Amino acid sequence: MTQALKSGGLRMTPQRLEIIREIAKAKDHPDADVILARVRERVPMLSRDTVYRTMDALVDAGLINKILMPRATRFDPDRLPHHHFICERCGKIVDIDADTVSPLPSVPRMLDGIGDVRAVHVHIQGVCHRCSEGHTQDQKRARS
Ligand SMILES: [Zn+2]
Ligand SMILES: [Zn+2]
User: Fold this and answer.
1) Ligand lying closest to the C-alpha of residue 135
2) Lowest mean pLDDT segment, chosen from 40-49, 52-61, 117-126
3) What share of the chain is helix, strand, coil (3-state, %, to 5)?
């Protein structure tokens, strides 16, 4: 990932490396604030701005995917084709094998009068088992 970024002309700083290390191993599709909190454990001086700009650079370089959610943009280091189950209560994003979903219609790389296509994903919306069993985050917090 860092090699591709360098050849893309992005200056590699120790802070950027820490951010890239964090998103590369993330399995939970974190948003920028979650990444910020995790990297700050090692790099307390890290600014929010640096995280946001690094994430944008990684997306522009095609190294990670952006998942636009109502409340925040989440990021995904897994560039292999797959889909997402999104819990509408807790916002959890779970990877779904591309094979689980029937084949997508082929989408042209450019849609006339609309724009260029960067990725085609299926967002499967629902309620995860934890939420449907009533274990919401709030209840968990109240019990502990
Ligand atoms: Zn849930
Ligand atoms: Zn994913």
Assistant:
1) 1
2) 117-126
3) 40, 20, 45
